[in-house]
């Protein structure tokens, strides 16, 4: 109830790493959690069938072309060093990044990689939900100031 952001926007949860973006589709822990919370994952099975798996796991390696095709409406970017993460800066300098709907509409949230991508269980799920509530409140405040 307190997560008031538009959950219909196709959302892309992804880790930013040296190797690029590692997406978390619906069959990952974060992907499943977001689905349970009512979010629409941009990476449904139809879109993920032909993408290359990262280290043979459920995570998907996204290059600029694939990212452009997916064109998420919202992104949760999991970074080790927050908004100053050098891997994130590299992505932000890519012209494809600037053309994404999520970027153009200021719906990119940089979140802690440890909490979102490395931790599992009820405690991390509750922390992620709390962060989503905080992001919702911040967006609501920003929208009221416009």
Automatic annotation (TrEMBL):
The keyword Chaperone does not apply. The keyword Nucleus does not apply. Transmembrane segments: none annotated. InterPro entries: ABC_transptr_periplasmic_BD, Bact_iron-sidero_bind. Residues 1-140 form the Fe/B12 periplasmic-binding domain. Coiled coil: none annotated. Gene3D superfamilies: Nitrogenase molybdenum iron protein domain. Keywords: Signal, Transport. It is found in: Cell envelope. GO terms for biological process: iron coordination entity transport. GO terms for cellular component: outer membrane-bounded periplasmic space. Belongs to the bacterial solute-binding protein 8 family. PANTHER family: FE(3+) DICITRATE-BINDING PERIPLASMIC PROTEIN (PTHR30532:SF29), IRON III DICITRATE-BINDING PERIPLASMIC PROTEIN (PTHR30532). This is Iron citrate ABC transporter substrate-binding protein.
């Amino acid at each position: 109830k307190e997560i008031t952001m538009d959950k219909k926007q196709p959302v892309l949860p992804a880790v930013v790493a040296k190797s690029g973006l590692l997406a978390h589709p619906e069959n990952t822990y974060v992907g499943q959690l977001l689905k349970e919370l009512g979010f629409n994952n941009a990476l449904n099975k139809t879109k993920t069938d032909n993408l290359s798996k990262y280290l043979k796991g459920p995570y998907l390696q996204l290059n600029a072309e694939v990212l452009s095709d997916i064109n998420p409406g919202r992104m949760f970017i999991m970074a080790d060093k927050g908004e100053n993460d050098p891997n994130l800066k590299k992505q932000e300098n890519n012209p494809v990044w600037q053309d994404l709907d999520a970027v153009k509409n200021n719906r990119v949230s940089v979140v802690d990689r440890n909490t979102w991508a490395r931790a599992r269980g009820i405690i991390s799920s509750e922390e992620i939900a709390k962060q989503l509530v905080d992001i919702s409140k911040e967006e609501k405040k920003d929208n009221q100031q416009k």
